[in-house]
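job 3f2a | input accepted
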Amino acid sequence: MAPPNSMVSMKHLLDAEIISVTSTMRRNSRWSSSSPFVTIPFQTRDAALGSTLGLRISTPSHNAYSSPNMSARISAEAELMLAFQDLKRVVRDTKDLTTLPLPHLLHPFFAIIRSPLSTGPITSVALSSLHAFFVNGLIRPDSLNLEEALGELSHTVSHCKFEASDSSGDEVTLLKIMTVIEDCMTSAVGQNVGDIEICEMLETVLTTCCQMRLSETLRRAADNSMQNLVRIVFARLPKLDPTTEEAKLQTFEEESADALTMNVSQPDVIIDQERAAEVNGQPAGSEQVQEAEQQPPTSAPLSAGLSRSQFGLPSIIELLRVLISVLDPNSQQHTDSTRLVALRTLDTAFQAAGESILSYPSLMALISDQGCKFLFQLARSENHNVLGASLRTIATVMQTSRKQLKLQQELLLAFTIDRLAPPALPAGAAKPAAPTTDSPRRGSPRPGTPSYTVLGDDAGSSTPARVLAAPARGDMRDLVLESLGQISSHSSFMVDVYTNYDCDVNCENLFERLIDFLTKAVYPSHYRTGQGVDVQQRNSQFLCLELLLVFVNDMAARNASDEENLSVPWPETCTPPSDLLSAKSQKKLIITGATLFNTKPAKGLAFLAENKLIYQEPDLTKDQSLARFLKTCTRLDKRLLGDYISKPDNIDLLDAFMRLFDFKGKPIADALRELLETFRLPGEAQQIDRITETFSKIYFASEPDEIQSQDAVYILAFSIILLNTDLHSPQIRKRMTIEDYQRNLRGQNGGQDFTPTFLQNVYDSIRKKEIVMPEEHTGQLGFEFAWKELLARSRQAGDLMVSNSREFDFDMFKTVWKPVISAIAYAFVTFEDDYIIQRAITGFRQCATLAGVFQLPEVFDFVVVSLSQATGLLDQDPAGPSGLLPIYPVVKVEDQDVTVSKLSVEFGTNFKGQLAAVVLFNIVNGHGNAVREGWTQIFEMFQMLFLHSLLPIRMLQMEDFLGGVSMIPLQGPQPRPAPARSDGGLLSALSSYLMTGTSAPTVPEATESDVEKTLSTIDCITSCRLDELYSQVMTLDQEAVLAAVKALEALAHERTVARLKQESSDDSTAPNDDATYSLPYDPASVFLLETMVSIAIQRPEVIDELWPIIFNEHLSPILSASLQYSDLLIERAVVGLLKLCPVLAPNPSLRDQIYVAFDLLAGLPTSVALSVAQQVVTGVSHLVQNHRQVIRSATEWNLVFALIRSTLSDQEASKHAFDLISSWAMEGPSQIVSSDNFSGLVTLLDDFAALANVAALHAQAQAQRRRDDQPKPVPAVERGSKAVEILSQLRNLTPSLEEASHLSALQAWRQLWLPLLGSFSRQSANAVRGIRQTAVSSMNRLIMGDSSVMEQLDQEQSLEIFSRVIFPLVEDLLRPEVFHRDPRGMPETQLRVESLLTRTFKRFVSREHQVLEDIQPVWIQILDILGALMDVGGPQLREAIPEDLRGVVLVMHVNQLLLPPQGITPDPRTEFQQGLWNTTLERLEAFLPGFLSEVIPSPPPPAPPTASEPEEIPAVQEQAQP
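job 3f2a | predicted structure (1522 res):
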């Protein structure tokens, strides 16, 4: 039958291997005389053959083999050869070898391999035969008694012994042992190998790996075999049932614990060097023969007699135990080379097992304690190879088992950070010792292992105690960093760290510590090398930056859109996120409280109580609640804690504190050790006494064995403290013996002695394990204590919560965003590697995205600020000390003007700055609503680009009311030259003349290189899409647009108001000059203003928020000091203000601000008002036409009219203003005459007429100078004439206005009639004849017409016609300068006015119910006026006055006002009549003598009265004044 894997028969294969082994044996001196058939003398053969044939065989007493030693040797050698001969005969006689048990077929080969008589070549051939059997299928799963054969095989290869020959050949033999073991485990029969066999074979391979006397090649081959075998063994874990295997492990521990024990230190494969001489033909000694005789040819394997099953957890855990034991850095049994083998093997084991190892509590118990403990110690080794291997293994362990290694991972991360960024040690703390090569003693590190220091809680400490190690430097630092990156490679790492540690009150803030370290490690200052940046340092910076970027990338992936979101829901089995975040908040308070306690306990406890961290348990007293906190809080200073609880006032607290310990069943030494590990024993004897006394009470209550009283506990506790000091203090040379200790305690147990066994146990416990106070934990003792605490905490800590959830991303990002972004920005600016730069750019984008998701504008601002600083576009103001911009060359490129400036050239070569700009503006594009403070940098870059003509055209334009859109000029008008000094001489004049030719600025030429760089800059700016961003600014949310406008105002304020204030205070160039200092033209301030106003106009819904920023903080200060700024800036400020007014109009709350603005504009200095007059008129026109409802009162109209009035001096503005006023006043769709604006309209029209007067006089003067009899038409005169005509038309509207507005007579007089009459009165003296005539006619019609106003007025209002209308007019006409305005036409005006005066008075005195006292003053003033007119008037006037005066006198006479004397006594006239007559007579006699007596002659003397008829004299009765 042919084997499955061979084309030859199985018999041929077996026979060939037998021949191969026996022929090799015969080449050895021991078997050289052997033949294939006779190997020993006949007499010495087994007597079985003779017995079978019925023969009696006698044994000679003397023969060649009679010697006992020789006989044993020949018997052993012959048996080995005979076994092969017998097997060969059996094979020949058997048709089907599968019917034969496999152990029988392999027995001769096993025997020769195990035999110490064999040599290296023989054993090697035998092993090759076994390899052939595996390869060709002789050993296969269906073989008979396969399990027995495998057990014997494992025992054989693990107990192989042979004599040494040459070293290379011997190592080949050992290599073949590895091959056979691999064949056994990797072939199909490997699944039938039992646990004991697995342990035996793996022990053999592992021992070979660790034999340093073997060659490097062999050890590496064995190491490779070990990796393969371990991978096979641990790969079975996922396939096994954990429950079944754990039960199987329990059975093994009970039945065959010794058989399953592996040992690496003593190899079972022995190469006997002492018998090597026999190979060369020399006989061996008797000792060797005896050894061969004692060694049985077939030794039973360890598994014989045991219940066997397929290998599983028992062998796996034993292998794991052995590997972990090798790692112990404090063990002198193993070297670092051995540990390297174990580390590589462990790494392979965890890779093969994966997370299935978590399902086996027995494995995890081993890993979580000794495994992690030794690995963490090796991870601080100074041996580079050990460090690298241990870090790799740790990373694999954490990758597969971290869910059950929560606190182990915390310690690992804390140690790692400490090695990479060692924290500052508290005062008095011991520094980590350097590795030493001195002889090791207790607490000292061995060579190749690190030393340890426990960083305890000092005063003010707020972190739990942790073990420190020496800093990692050079290549080791890179190894540690790369390992950290490997451990943190899974996307949920940072979430896991935050939720498990930072949100745990009893753990460190590892997330914050880790991010703090990573961010600081990106900067070179972190390394303190003092010699620049070397390659290793730069590599460390790269690694730290990469970890930061991975953190940001993972968070961004969790918070991406639904399609790309990698976040998972938070597991329901874990603590709810709200509880974790609450614990995080509570942790901050506890840290603060602990820090305060460590400074001053009373202050700390008050803080804790205030924040409800203590005294909150209803079922506990205050002392019990405080005691629980003091015992469980790991952040308290143990020295202060011991001092505090042992104070006399805190006896109850000390009692409650000790009752938290469970001393039941614990020996007193262990109980006291547990107590004293929680606080440091005070130094004061009374405090120690209180602690000891309280301990004795609590401990004795637990009913300890052999202790009779509480006093005995007290004495025993004191004795233990003293014994601990005596046995372990380095200052004490003579140690206390057990006899001394027993003698000291004689009779102290309630009058009796403690039993010797009891005291011996106490003594041994203290001798073997020192009671170490918390702050004395140093060296290896410190690490052991820290590890003990970790294991105790891990029993309550639970498993590691693992979830790639985004529930905590907001809190995490909010905590660390600033240092993270700063580090990325630094890397972007300083690193030159393209990959790093690209990753940094991605990090910026992701941070910006997260800022938008979490609505953290301050984060977005920081990104903007960081990137803007990298662009190189800030602080590039090209203006020189004079404040003027340089003139840059402009070249034509593809029919476009390109300005080649200093910035455009420098930015064109700054590739990193271009990247930063593109990234920045692409981030802001679409995320503008997330920007707040960052707008300052954005607009500052806009400003710089504007000053260098690099902005898009759209952003360079400004719009006004007159010329539409125009470009903001970069160059303003040249400043006026300073006046020449009067004290200058010839040299000064010559100097001024010479310098005049050099004052013109020169324009530099642009090179081709500069143009090319400028084009690169333009391309970059185009890629930034600034025009899109500018459009988005107009549509921002309210908060964002407010921030943008505030940023614009701040920049503009700095360039205008702040700059003026600073330079005005610094200006001392002309101390004797009274001229006001003014700033030069600044185009950037105009650009910022235009942008600010444009945003406000586009966002009317937020104008109530924008208006105070723009007007109060910027426009108002500028316009209030308008003479100190450039004309263009003031013009743009006025235009901007007027453009904002229509935006204010619809907002009722801001309507009054329009008039505040108008009042500000109306108060501008005359020169400024004239320069902006056209803009003001047009702006007001647009406002009133589009928002008539905004003007609702006479006060508001007056402000509008006052603003318009301030512009009338400008010809163009006056024209626009008149058109505007005309449209308002004349009948038509634009007419808006009302009682509120009637007076203002009249005043404005009157102003136009007054301007006509001025223009006419000016034209007359010019005509006189030119002697031109036909002066040219003057527009102002035409407007004045039309204005008076409009005034005449307005009188027709007064009745309807009075009725519509429901005005009283007095109101109508004040608001309508009087203003109109006053205007006519003033214009009746106008130099323009047509205006005078129209005004006089209109006034005449208004006073004397059919619907005369006189009919509606009362006495007081009627008198105002004289005092405020006619009398002032006549007085003007009497002035010579008025008369000379129009000498030809003025007499006619005088005549008409005189006529109006007399006729008005006649109507006045003819009214009923006159007040006589009011008539006389008016009449006297009229007489004086008429007398004056007689003096200056022409012939016509002199003729008209008497006639008009006659009519007035007669009317007064008819109305019994003016009566001559009657010639009788007493005078029948009243006193008023007498006085009026006398005054009139006196006045008339002055310019018309005899006129009064002529008009009103005195009556003839009356006849004497008769007695019957009395005389009657007519008299005017005085009327009482109403």
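job 3f2a | The first helix runs from residue 10 to 26.
job 3f2a | closed
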